[in-house]
Specification:
The structure is a homodimer of 698-residue chains. Chain A has 698 residues and is α/β, with parallel strands linked by helices. Helix content of chain A is 39%, strand content 16%. Chain A has 21 helices and 20 strands. In chain A, the strands form 5 sheets. In chain A, strands 1-12-14-13-15-18-16-17 form an 8-stranded mixed beta sheet, sandwiched between helices. In chain A, strands 3-2-11-5 form a 4-stranded antiparallel beta sheet, with no helix packed on it. In chain A, strand 2 and strand 3 form a beta hairpin. Chain A starts with a helix and ends with a helix. The N terminus of chain A is likely disordered.
Chain lengths: 698, 698
């Protein structure tokens, strides 16, 4: 009975007055709660919709006239809101237009396939003259006629299976379905295996009628819906000619040395996407051996591995790659006490079409947020640290704008980058999900308790933690968006999150009309995401000491090393474990707990100067850098984080402890000792920095 | 090193001279090995094919003229092989013909649907004039026109989901896909929920093109393939008018009291099956709310729960039920030493069409086996116990022939029934599977080590135990075939097994042509199954003491009670477990181990008379009867086994400890104490009988 009363009381307390947060003194926390209340009051629930409508009037691919309009609009809104706006231009080597392409069934009976979405009579957006056919940026150019082979998702293991089954793809055109990896790897593996070309389609089992009603009746892909997207698979991220360096304008003062395009790691075979209505015309005529059961898709026949001799396909792509101007827009709300400590939020601005969900729902949310923060500033509540809101260009072509900026600002980010929060298409549905670095997981969880979820009487926390676990599901950061350079190249603790749901990803149907009809007709989700994004930014900005959750490092490291050791033992029975790192993690656990306590009592005593805080916070920022290795990864030295990378064999998936994951992927034991040394040194360095902080605080 | 040598030696020994088996003295075992060698030599590898071809010349539904030909052929073959053949006739209340039926889309646009398989030009079997349209025996008769509702698999939980989703099926026609339960339950639940009629179809995701190539290109259902089958769902098994009693001929001497057909538990709504090509014409026109994701099938559109007002369907069935003569044919090879101890093998003889896989592959195998046993007898190796080979009629309409025979022979089976082995369609593919009572699992495993698997250099054991577990996967006996009455009504330890694979189950395509093309073109599997069936029969027949594996009772009971307790605790946190039964199982473990040792040393000493063995074996036969409860189950008192039943909510699935499973299904705690008492009494009785045996042996 007593226990029940205690639970009721603690619920009550939690709901009405959030528990004091790491890094805050009691006074600061009281102020913070007032600011958070005021922030919520200032959110204009109508502005998300207005911005979204404006941003998505026309398709706005990087380099297009309409994208310049979007860039201008973003700058104007942030400027008017009271932020200092700077544009960061780059000249990036990329295809700004699909060029020409053709898919044709040649035999048994000539038939040219459609490569563009159907016009829907009661959706005027679908008629926009700026909409292009489906295409994959960074395709090779070529014109080939050949037999066809089906390669499932075109993953590494799928091509291995084809080889085992004796299917030769040399000189053939491969058809593969979207899903299972980053599409660029489908092209990479197809080319490596000798294919002459690649057609990528969306299978109805993965995203079409087998999942639910299709557009315009529902939010799933119809037979003409086409996923566009980049194929770039260099062993670094960003502009393909300037690894490690910013692709500053060709006509600018500072000259950047660029690779010769011939040296760039680009595909040479033609690749282009189609919808499943047209794919059916190819797949339905194939005659070879039946696929393994898991390769069967949702079209109404048994899938085959080969088309046979009677079925020949012509695939032609002529795509020009050139230098294209990409422009990031960054608005800064300068910090009142620590302007050189940066809380960075971001979302890209370029799109494959209208981009209503991807990216503009995130852009619209950030624009509304900049206005709300502007009002707070007008009320005299400027955050202590600077809040930067970054709108990145050329993300769709390969996470380029943000990467070039990180490469340009490397030194400043090293010294000033407190956190990067990514909101790519962050209001794309009515679900919620997030991934985060260890030090930021608590921030996500705790702020979610103070955000109301619309359409329910639940908090975001309750909605998100449906399964009632000890923590809601927080993912690991993988590839595919603008956190990559921040987190994996320079080591700024990052997170990525937002609202999601079924949508017509990267297609011409992703318009305001679609959003209104299927994503959030009542436009409630935008301000919900703005609320949590704003609270997280403000909590990170206003803590006396930067509110990283330091204890999480040791807990997560222990778990991930345990997982890695288990995977290694599956192929190496003799492996005795990462002993040095294991010891280092144990020490780190003690040290981080001690430091957390020290910070708490230090703040309680209240006996500190601003200068002292500045010195301590500088060291806080330096902590994550222990995981940044100059040597980087064996699969690509641009990937400098020992802690996380995207999976270099699939592109999207997250690799935690990528040094180890690479050895595991190769089933190699050769470098395990080396990695034990490198990882234990990194954890040891983090431990040392924490001990130094403890000593300084004392 | 030493250990490795030991392993090598033991493998060697195993392979070349099977370890001595339970129930055999050393001498007997040596004899037995000679007999087993000779048995293998006598198998005529060509006879399976000949019998199969003969049996499947024409469709042979129970009561048909062609089925009488099959009955005669079976009797002749066994008679010629040297077995004593007896026919057991019954007059069973069942529909011997589909009658008339019609499925018609009425609105929006009139269309009569096809109800019969397409004729395949290069398969002459498909033109046979005796082939009927698709039908479900024991449908109600009626002519209804109504809107349509899709009910997934028509399981109990599917109808519950429809109710939760607010879909009213009252007065509507339900369309449900095959799979997930016994089809009769689809009709039972549809009728209970107020449906006016039921259409059952096979979805391509479950058995059609989504699984592999379709007939005639491959072994899966094409768009016109129709699963026939009975709908009988009485709360007992067998003839619907004579529960507990044999349906002896109406014109016979002994008069059996029959229920008035009006009292019989029969469906009243019309029910009929179709292929997915025709189902698509209905499902594709539905307009209502989208189905839950797991209800989506393989047809190329999003499935809906309701058809809406504009789609009306007419369903008409006029099916006459009458008394039909069914005849079991049983051949007996009379035992040389213990003719009153019966080893029974069986398979049904009636079919929905040609029945090449189901049942005739099992029939052909048993006919070949009877010839091989006949040759052994000619060589002077008559088995010690009698071997009975039963060919059951009217299985397809509801496991009727075998059940009536068991009811007729109840007293004799109680005294004489050592084991029942079911081989329904037992040579239907190139895979292998089996289910068995605890005392017979070891028999299956050990004999499989002495059988060569064709198309490989593996033994059946190696092939079957692919996963290299401590035991190959042996299932629990569920419903759906002729072991039911033996095992669940009178308590004869039973097993069921054979070779399986993809096939055109219960359709007009299940012909010799289909078998030759897709099941086993080289006709190697028939003699493989004959080999293991024969070895099992001979081992059970020739042991001095019946070779039950007595230790398995306690091990399996402990596991099953543990599982049941876990399931109960999910809804009843207070439940403290089946304490009385737990204690009883502990005692049983000790006793059975002791008895097993005693039998072994008793046989080693060799100091025993045939009369003594007969007395002991009589008690061995009585052991399993401890699980036979006169009161039976609450869901149907005909189900008398406390150990196993078919699931009364789905028909096919196995319920182990059905007394408990029923409480669990109802989430009830009311009768748990009662069941603890009943189960502990049963286990106690078994324990007592074993202790008595120990005492007698001493």
């Amino acid at each position: 009975m007593k226990r029940i009363i205690l639970i009721i009381i603690s619920c009550f307390v939690l709901q009405f007055s959030p528990a004091q947060y790491d890094g805050y003194s009691s006074n600061s926390w009281e102020n913070q709660l007032e600011i958070e209340d005021l922030f919520l009051k200032h959110i204009d629930k109508t502005s998300f919709k207005k911005h979204l409508q404006k941003l998505t009037e026309r398709p706005h691919v990087v380099g297009s006239k309409t994208n310049e309009d979007v860039i201008r609009y973003i700058g104007e809104v942030m400027n008017k809101a009271g932020l200092d706006v700077i544009n960061y231009p780059y000249d990036v080597y990329l295809p700004k237009h699909p060029g020409s392409s053709l898919i044709e069934i040649v035999t048994p009976s000539r038939q040219v396939l459609n490569q563009k979405e159907d016009i829907i009579s009661d959706d005027p957006f679908t008629k926009d003259s700026l909409l292009w056919k489906g295409w994959n940026a960074f395709s090779g150019s070529g014109d080939v006629t050949a037999e066809i082979v089906y390669a499932n998702y075109g993953r590494k293991e799928d091509f291995e299976t084809l080889k085992e089954l004796g299917v030769d793809i040399k000189g053939k055109i491969v058809i593969a379905r979207y899903g299972g990896n980053f599409r660029g790897y489908k092209a990479k593996f197809a080319e490596a295996n000798g294919a002459a070309g690649l057609i990528i389609y969306t299978d109805p089992k993965d995203s079409g009628f087998a999942r639910g009603l299709v557009y315009p009746e529902g939010p799933y892909y119809n037979e003409s819906t086409i996923q566009r997207g980049s194929l770039l698979t260099t062993d670094f991220t960003g502009d393909p000619l300037t690894p490690f360096e910013p692709a500053l304008p060709l006509d600018g003062k500072k000259k950047i040395k660029r690779l010769d395009p011939k040296e760039a790691q680009l595909h040479t075979i033609p690749v282009t996407p189609i919808g499943y209505g047209e794919a059916e015309k190819i797949l339905g005529q194939m005659k070879g051996v039946v696929v393994p059961q898991s390769w069967q898709g949702g079209l109404p026949f048994t899938y085959r591995l080969e088309g046979g001799r009677s079925l020949t396909i012509r695939l032609k792509v002529d795509q020009k790659i050139d230098f294209v101007r990409a422009t990031n827009v960054i608005g800064t709300l300068k910090g009142s006490e620590a302007p050189n400590e940066w809380i960075i939020l971001g979302c890209h601005l370029d799109s494959w079409g209208f981009g209503a969900t991807d990216p503009s729902s995130g852009t619209a949310m950030l624009l509304s947020l900049s206005q709300t923060l502007g009002k707070l500033k007008e009320d005299g509540f400027t955050p202590k640290r600077s809040i930067l809101i970054g709108h990145w260009d050329a993300e769709e072509h390969g996470v380029i704008g943000s990467t070039e900026w990180v490469e340009q600002m490397r030194d400043q980010l090293n010294a000033k980058g407190v956190v990067y929060m990514n909101f790519d298409g962050a209001v794309s549905g009515k679900g919620f999900g997030a991934s985060a670095a260890p030090t930021l997981k608590k921030l996500l969880v705790e702020t979610s308790k103070n955000v109301q979820y619309p359409y329910t009487d639940q908090t975001l926390y309750e909605f998100w933690n449906k399964e009632n676990m000890s923590e809601p599901p927080i993912g690991n950061l993988g590839g595919g968006s603008d956190h990559i350079a921040f987190y994996m190249h320079v080591g700024v603790p990052s997170m990525s999150g937002g609202a999601g749901g079924p949508n017509v990803y990267h297609s011409n149907y992703d318009s305001f009309r679609f959003y209104e009809k299927f994503v959030d007709p009542e436009f409630q989700m935008g301000s919900m995401v703005e609320h949590i994004a704003g609270l997280m930014a403000l909590r990170m900005a206003n803590g006396d000491i930067i509110p990283y959750n330091l204890n999480r490092y040791a807990a997560d490291l222990k778990m991930h090393f345990g997982n890695a050791e288990n995977k290694i033992r599956e192929y190496d029975k003799e492996f005795e474990g990462f002993k040095l790192t294991g010891e280092a993690i144990k020490s780190l656990k003690n040290t981080s707990e001690k430091l957390t306590m020290k910070i708490k009592s230090y703040l309680e005593e209240g006996n500190y100067s601003k200068r002292e805080l500045k010195r301590l916070n500088k060291q806080m920022i330096a902590l994550e850098k222990s995981f940044i290795s100059d040597q980087g990864m064996y699969f690509g030295s641009w990937y400098k984080s020992l802690y996380a990378s995207s999976d270099p064999f699939s592109g999207y998936a997250a690799w935690i402890l990528p040094g180890l994951e690479y050895e595991i992927a190769l089933k190699s034991s050769n470098r395990l000792e080396e990695w034990d040394e490198r990882y234990s040194a990194a954890v040891g360095s983090l431990n040392l920095k924490m001990n130094k902080l403890i000593a300084e605080i004392e």
